[in-house]
Amino acid sequence: MAVPAENRETLCFLHGWGFDQRVWSGFVDGFVPEWNVKLPTLPGYDGAAPRALGLEDVARAMLTAVPDDSILVGWSLGGMIGIRIASLKPVRKLILLAGSPCFVKKDDWPCGIEAELVERLMQGIKDYPDRAVQEFALLSSKGDGRPRATYQELSALLKGNRVHAGALIDGLEMLLHADLRAEFSGLKCKAGVILATDDQLLPVAAGAAMLALRSGLDLEIIEGAGHAPFISRPVPTRQSLLAILKPGIAG
Q1: How far apart are CA 92 and CA 159, in angstroms?
Q2: Which one from 141, 199, 218, 240 is the annotated catalytic residue?
Q3: What is the rounded distance in angstroms from the CA atom of residue 168 to the CA atom of residue 110?
Q4: Burial, 246: exposed, middle or buried (Cβ in 10 Å; 0-12, 13-18, 19+)?
Q5: pTM passes above 0.70
Q6: Can you give the C-alpha Rg of the chain in angstroms?
Q7: Which of 2, 10, 72, 84 is the most exposed place for a label (fewest CB within 10 A)?
Q8: Whether 76 is catalytic
């Protein structure tokens, strides 16, 4: 049922590494009648060449694009940027979708990816940027129930991509080095996480590790999906998101 615009909360979707805001196309349509939906673009994803930006720079650059008291939904790297945004301004709720406060494995954080994978992508961006982003699309589609269709959909989005190679390098640097576990644990807003059982880039075991960081965390698990569940399994992903947005009401 549609909600009058003046009574709607704002749902702000942050895209991840390699793909601009169009990656949300289609998935967010069902949320429009009840929420004011915002799809901001990260610096460097609009074709403009950015100066070298770290996580703090990107988060601060996004502050004006994210209204106060928004509900932030961040995919992958977008979730990490969302953590930093939520530490800088009032946010009603933060939801990580296939996201984590720490992406790379560490001695005390085994539920991440190998640093070598990120380093390989980084070298690939320097040598053959289009090929490297295609590799990420392939990795994102692995593990789900329809990997070929997911890969084709992601590949189609890349054809209109205007992201600058510098922004891709900056994003990989964030994924490689940022560790926001303490920040995530201390956030004042409510938080939720949606993970997929067959994600080849973020082990589903990260859910238990994040619960250890925040005992009140809302955790949803999507069966049979990879790193882009909102593309490969949009219906259960929507249900999981609604379960966090409106506990006890989603169906």
Answers
A1: 35
A2: 199
A3: 25
A4: exposed
A5: yes
A6: 17
A7: 2
A8: yes
Q: Confidence class of residue 245 from pLDDT cuts 50, 70 and 90?
A: very high
Q: How far is CA 167 from the centre of its chain?
A: 16
Whether 164 is a known active-site residue: answer: no
In this structure, which topology does domain 5-245 adopt according to CATH?
Rossmann fold (3.40.50)
Q: Which of 51-65, 96-110, 235-249 is the most confident on average?
A: 96-110
Query: Exactly one of 15, 20, 76, 232 is catalytic; which is it?
Result: 76
Q: How far is CA 95 from CA 44, 81, 150, in A?
A: 23, 11, 22
- Tokens 């009648």 found at: 33
Token look-up 């080849």 returns 200
Amino acid at 65: A
Name residues whose C-beta falls within 8 Å of residue 42's C-beta, 6 or more positions apart in sequence.
Answer: 14, 15, 20, 58, 62, 78, 81, 167, 171
